[in-house]
Amino acid sequence: MAEAAKKGYQQILWLFGEEELVTEVGTMNMFTFWTNEQGEKELITAPLTDGTILPGVTRDSILQICRDWGEFKVSEKNYSMPQLVEALKSGRVIECFGCGTAAVVAPIKLIGYKGVDFEVPLDPSRPGHPAGALTQRIWDTIYNIQTGITEHPWSIVV
User: Fold this and answer.
1) What are the tens digits of pLDDT across the range 28-60?
2) Which among 139, 132, 123, 134 is positioned nearest to 58, based on CA atoms?
3) Domain boundaries, the chain
4) Do residues 23 and 30 make contact, with C-beta atoms less than 8 angstroms apart?
5) CATH of the structural domain 2-146, one choice from 3.40.50.2300, 3.20.10.10, 3.30.360.10, 3.40.640.10
6) What per-residue confidence (pLDDT) applies to 1?
7) Which of 81, 75, 80, 78 is nearest to 62 (CA)?
């Protein structure tokens, strides 16, 4: 982490194995919202299959909320850093974020890989806004459920 901080990065994106599978960013689950190779909008995060990915309530909540919206494909499957770089280069990445209990969601605006910095889009309709539209929507949705603003079976106002 110290080496990454010296280069100006705030977190480390953990890659797994020779395939350089995208796993977690710091201690948060990594999510990518992109147009996949089949032309579908997809929210993707690594699966929980082998024990290397941190399971969590926030991760599960995001997956369920997005599936309930039914607006795009939601996948728990492996994807590699080379696939992510190719998608960034070709303009197919819409946004990326990490999620975890303390942060709920944390937008990612830059990824350094093999000496090259790749800018990750945020919200082009809101220049200067620190989060992408989906990241902000997820944060707002979870916050509103947690605080009782939105009635939901996950939250009981006392």
Assistant:
1) 999 999 999 999 999 999 999 888 888 899 999
2) 139
3) 2-146
4) yes
5) 3.20.10.10
6) 63
7) 75
Residue by residue, DSSP assigns 2-70 as HHHHHTT-SS-EEEETTTTEEEEETTEEEEEEEE-TTS-EEEEE--STTS-SPP-HHHHHHHHHHHHHT
Amino acid, single-letter form, for residue 4? A
Among residues 108, 64, 104, the alpha carbon closest in space to that of 84 is found at: 108
Q: Do residues 42 and 72 touch, judged by C-beta distance below 8 A?
A: yes
Tokens of 82: 């080379």
Global confidence as pTM: 0.92
Among candidate residues 126, 39, 23, the one with its CA nearest the CA of residue 79: 23
Q: How far apart are CA 112 and CA 77, in angstroms?
A: 22
Under 8 Å CB-to-CB from 113, ≥6 apart: which residues? 13, 81, 85
Return d(Cα 112, Cα 117) in angstroms, integer: 4
Give the 3-state secondary structure of residue 155.
strand
